[in-house]
Design goal:
Radius of gyration: 19 Å
Strand content: under 5%
Structural class: mainly alpha
Number of helices: 10
Largest sheet: 2 strands, antiparallel
Order of helices and strands: HEHHHHEHHHHH
Length: 208
Amino acid sequence: MAKLSVELNRYFFEEDRNPEVTFYDILTLAGERVFGILFVLLSLPSALPVPAPGYSIPFGVVMFLLAVQLMAGRKRPWLPERMKQSTVRLTTAQRIVKSGMPWLRRLELFTKPRLVTICTSFSGRVVIGVAISLMAICMMIPIPGTNTLPAMGIFITGFGLVEDDGIITLMGLVVCLMGGLLAGSIFFALIWGGSNLLELLKEWLGRS
């Protein structure tokens, strides 16, 4: 089975493509490794410092749907027809894939099938699905600082699924945990700071 970096390079740079790429095209590319490859590709814009704004919420929604289906034990994901026909400009997809390629190649240097049960068993995929769904929710929250680390966790976990590498998947889950803690801390800090500001305003208005 070809390495993911080789498949992506062939698909996006070596073969002739239409000016826009659909989700249906990506599903066809993914084949049997569809969940892992989709998690890798959809998390890239938020996980890496590439100029691709506006993708964290829609891609977060898609990854949430995929994670729920992973937990349900589906082998192939279902997506609404309208979602499958949604498009991304080929040049944008190429820029994102090109930025992520060095990271993929570094991971591939020491990746191999091990602790496969983590990636293939029903219980393992439930845990992975729960972690990714929570990270996808974090990506959908429009608060600065809640996107990058959760997306990195999804990226690494998805890559572990692609390669049936339980060690990489566990590393991704650890990053997901860190991302969840960071997003939760930022969220509660904003709530706490907002409530304190409200109290200060009430006190100031009461004195005036």
